[in-house]
Amino acid sequence: MLAKGEMENDMTALQDQLDEITARTRKLVQAERLAIGERAVEELFATGIEERILPVGAMAPEFALNDSHGKLVRSRDLLAVGPLVLKFFRGRWCSYCVTELETWRDLYGQLRERGALLVAISPETQRQSDFAVQQHGLQFPLLHDPGAAVAEQFGLVYTVPEYHQKYLKSILVNLPFLNGEASWRLPIPATYMLGRDGRVVFAEAHADFRVRPEPADVLAALFA
Question: Do 83 and 37 meet the contact criterion of CB atoms below 8 Å apart?
């Protein structure tokens, strides 16, 4: 088993990969279109949503959600096996989310060696989750959170403003179709680590979807 320092050195920096996506996007997309997303991020940050997420030390709400095969997955059953990493993500349409999921896919073996489990949760339908599992070779479950109801219990949910809805539809991101309901509710991307007692030992979420915690920081919570 790798020591903590060896574990961190073995990992590719996730944020570096995400910053590359941002740099490419800024080269390819017109400034006035980029400004729409920047406005949405700034307005969301100004709501203080990051300060209202379920914090470290809190007891996480229990949940029961269907995976991409239609199997009901209960948090209580997962925690009976070991500590649990929860990845809340926007959807397979988000290149940042996909990159993050692929990073965790490559680290999943290390996570399991430490006795922990991982599930990823989004509002997308079971069908969309199945596409993501198949396309990206994910070994961990993707869970369908209808209407982002579980994400809301973690303090992560917002409604996409109308001007941003219009932009997303212009690039063929139709959330009512992808999520199977009409609310345009999304979670801000978030990562949690729960101890076996269901208590939060790591919590990080960002209004800026381009920023995600490093997996090494999350896994370090296993050694705390």
Answer: no
Question: For residue 97, which phi and psi values (nearest 5 degrees)?
Answer: -65, -45
Helix, strand and coil in the chain, % to nearest 5: 50, 15, 35
Instruction: Pull the structure tokens for residue 205.
Output: 């979420």
Q: Is residue 93 a contact partner of residue 178, using CB atoms and an 8 Å limit?
A: yes
- pLDDT tens for each residue of 129-149: 999 999 999 999 999 999 999
Query: DSSP code of 145?
Result: -
Kindly tell me the number of DSSP H helices and DSSP E strands found in the chain.
10, 9
**Within 13 Å and on the Cβ side, how many CA atoms surround 118?**
26
pTM of the shown model: 0.92
What sign results for the dihedral spanned by CA atoms 164, 169, 171, 172? positive
Assess contact for 187 and 159: CB atoms under 8 A: no
Q: What phi and psi, each to the nearest 5 degrees, are found at residue 166?
A: -60, -40
